[in-house]
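#structure-requests
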Amino acid sequence: MAEAFAATPRADFLPADQRRRAAYDGPLPLGHGQTSSQPRTVETMLRLLEVRPGQKVLDVGSGSGWTAALLARLVGPTGRVLGVELEAELVELGTRHLDAAGVPWASIHEATPGVLGLPGAAPYHRILVSAMARELPEELVEQLHTGGVMVVPVDGTMLRVSRSMRGVGITRHGAYRFVPLR
């Protein structure tokens, strides 16, 4: 994972007026009411997600594209990362950032209002959600592949959700704050 962070500097995914603060271990504004998540939080979420080369990953709330690029480094060119973002300007910004990062197996798509994720491209081996849900988003759980894992903040607690033939398992991993999932 250290290699992915080294190859994907946060500064490259921040607005020009925030780049000098890239090393700050806290959220930074991207505009449109969205933020670039705290690096330590992103690292924790990626560890919980246990991304492997060749996997298909959904990145919900892609923002500037930083998490999508990190995920792309982890899945490698045999994998696929599909990001989804509500703010059209951030979709454009994130797409430019991914192009500059040289990870053509990652893309960001504009979210359909009222639809979580990208159900038409499901199932996913992994789903990363970078926005706070009020309750477990079942719509995203349904997009998980059997054997898949989702990491999602729900009502202030980071959850690791795993889907198996026997059902859904949930573990809790600390308190966090995010912009609301919408």
